[in-house]
Amino acid sequence: MNIKDNLVQIHQQIQQACEQAGRHSTDVQLLAVSKTKSADMVLQAYQAGQRHFGENYVQEAVDKIAQLSHLSDICWHFIGPIQSNKTKLIAENFAWVHSVDREKIASRLNDQRSSQDTPLNICLQVNISEEETKSGVTPDALPALADFVANCEHLTLRGLMAIPQKGATETAFSQMNQLFNDLKKRYSTIDTLSMGMSNDLTEAIANGSTMVRIGTAIFGARN
Question: Which of 54, 7, 14, 6 shows the shortest CA–CA distance to 206?
Answer without folding.
Answer: 14
